[in-house]
Amino acid sequence: MKPHDLPCCIVEDLLPNYIEHLTSQDSDEKIKSHLNHCEHCQKKLLQLQAPIQPVGEPSLNTDAAAVAFFRKAKRKTLRQIWCSVGITLLVCALTVYAVILHQLPFHFTVENLYRLSDGSIYFELQAVAPESNISSISYHDGFGHNDSDYSIHMGYSLYTLLQAKSGAKDTEKRYAFTIPTEIVNQISSSGQLVYRQSQETLVIWDGECTLPAAPESIELQASATASPFSVIG
Ligand SMILES: [Zn+2]
After folding, report:
1. Residue 213 pLDDT more than 70?
2. Most buried residue, 16, 27, 91, 231, by most Cβ within 10 Å?
3. CA of residue 48 to ligand 1 center, whole Å
4. What is the pTM for the complete model shown?
């Protein structure tokens, strides 16, 4: 410590005022001359001049903190988008599974195949494997593009799957069909009457063999059959 030099404790007390230029010119000179050789007080001065940081926060500058924040937000948004895409694909896959694979055990035998008195054909399809107890099914029929067979198809539509009562099984369900005379004539000249389910084809009538005439009970049943089919039994 030089002569006339201030002791560290006095300099430390004066530093806050010195920074704010509140000290006298005489004091300023003494503080400067002390700071020139005292590392301890230089450090104290730097600490007082450093910008104030919140306790516990990392000492990032404001721009870097903002960039980090937005990067984090962007990563979070991307994660949410990928999650949504993943969930959507999973739902689609489960729907395809439910609609296509759920139909596989939906098989039938042909019963009560008769020629009605007006020339139309009557037959019933009896479910031989348990199926979900549903109140309606999707249906389409018609002549195929590549073959001359008249094809009937039934399947569970999405709507009917929603209607299905889970757990309820029913093998007693029977579907009654009446094929109009004009279509019967077309089938007999071109192909067969078939039921198609997935890759399987069930031949109902080959279009050639003579069908037995329907008994009275079947004539009555057929007249009560709604177009294109009814659920009976
Ligand atoms: Zn000092």
Report:
1. yes
2. 27
3. 14
4. 0.52
